[in-house]
Amino acid sequence: MKVLICGIICLFAFCGANPVNPSVHDVVSRALERIDYNNIIPKELITRLRFLTEADILGGSEITVFLNQYADTIFNNLQNFIRQHNWQNVDIPDTHLKISGGSVDLTRGNLNDLDTISRGGDVILTYEGDNKKLVIELPITFGDLRFHYHHHTKVLFISMSGEVDGTVKHIQVSAIASFDFNSNTVFLDHYDMKHSGDVTVHFSGNPVVDWLANAISAVVTTFMGQVIINVMAKFIRDNLRAVIENLNEAIAQIINH
């Protein structure tokens, strides 16, 4: 995830660098040289962005470019990269849910199929000449994400333990980042995550009382959707912030070198 975000941010920063200002061009170019793309960023995209920079066609006007085709290639490469490094799964925190007449403790959880990440809409790159700022809109979506927990459920005088499996569908992320050439700084301007509410939950492991657990699954489902959203939101937001912090540190080091 960090490789994808860092690559995209650096690429659009490079695209907007104006050779009239050698310091900016030098900062971005040297920052790009320090990034290991791991075959994720298409070389053709780098070549075309370099051409735009050297041709000095950005000027002081506002220019908008759609990067959908390149984004699809990047996401396809990222999917393979995630699988190769076995990053499809992440641990999710223990959760205590209060329900009518009892409670549900969810432990040892994990979230699967993060390699279903893909483009969730138009990837738009805008150069704001008046503000000397480059802005990228990056919509991200995931396929069906499976989760698994061990549960301990208490309802009235009945106590049961077992496994709970479920699926969250249609998670979408909207992120907007920008590079300000006045301060040579990258910002995360907007971040939001949502899903359609399509969550399924199934309890298993105790045949005698599974019927009761599944009877309350409708209640648990309401909570589980938000739990998964919170986990995913933190996961992606933390990666975005980490990448931006690292990139700003790298740029500062280059400027002060």
From TrEMBL:
Coiled coil: none annotated. One of its GO terms (molecular function) is lipid binding. This is Uncharacterized protein LOC114333564. The lineage of its organism: Eukaryota, Metazoa, Ecdysozoa, Arthropoda, Hexapoda. It comes from Diabrotica virgifera virgifera (western corn rootworm). Keywords: Signal. Residues 1-17 form the signal peptide.
